[in-house]
Design goal:
It contains 5 helices and 3 strands; from the N terminus they run ααβααββα. By secondary structure, the protein is of the alpha+beta class. It has helices at about 5-10, 15-25, 30-40, 50-60, 85-110, and strands spanning about 25-30, 65-70, 75-80. The protein has one domain: Winged helix-like DNA-binding domain superfamily/Winged helix DNA-binding domain (Arc Repressor Mutant, subunit A, Orthogonal Bundle), CATH 1.10.10.10. Strands 1-3-2 form a 3-stranded antiparallel beta sheet. About 20% of the residues are buried. The chain starts with a helix and ends in a 5-residue tail after the last helix.
Amino acid sequence: MKNTIQRDLFPGALEMMILRTLKRRPLHGYALAQHIKQTSNDVLQIEEGSLYPALQRMLKAGWLKAEWGISSTNRRIRIYTLTPLGAKHLEREVSSFERMLEGIRRVLSPVKP
C-alpha cells in the first residue's frame, strides 16, 4: 500500500496521529513514521512528502518544538517534542473527532425495528 496518505485520511488526521505519538515521547521523523505504521498494523504508511511538511506546519503553529541530536548511527537528526499548546490542540481535535465518529457510527448502524 504505497499510495499517498493524503487521499486516505481526512484533513487533520496525520497531525492528530503525530501529536498523539509525540505525547508518548519525543521522536525524530523516521521513528514517527515507523511508529504510526507499526501501531496501525501496516495499514498507514506515512510518506516523507506528507510527514515533513506536516511537521513544519506544526512547528510554525507552535504545537511542536524541535532540537538537533545524533542518532545511534552517528547521524544528525531532528527530534520533535510536543508543546503545551500542541497538547491542548490534540485534546480539542480528538474530542471533535470522537463526536464525528459517534455520528458516523449512528448513521452506519443497522436500523432497529
